Amino acid sequence: MNKSKFLLSDDARTAFHELKKILTTDLILGLPDDTLQFKIQSDASVDGI
């Protein structure tokens, strides 16, 4: 494995930490606002489990 170092700018480091926080934070589901339009999508298959 290559062990060379690389440097991150402050902006890149901040962006990395923000992305890491977004990807590792639990999602909170809530009810949609029925005064606004929203879209419902499903990935359900033909066969149930």
Automatic annotation (TrEMBL):
Lineage: Eukaryota, Metazoa, Spiralia, Gnathifera, Rotifera
Residue span(s) of domain Reverse transcriptase/retrotransposon-derived protein RNase H-like: 9-49
InterPro entries listed in its UniProt record: DNA/RNA_pol_sf, RT_RNaseH_2
Signal peptide bounds: none
Stated name of the protein: Reverse transcriptase/retrotransposon-derived protein RNase H-like domain-containing protein
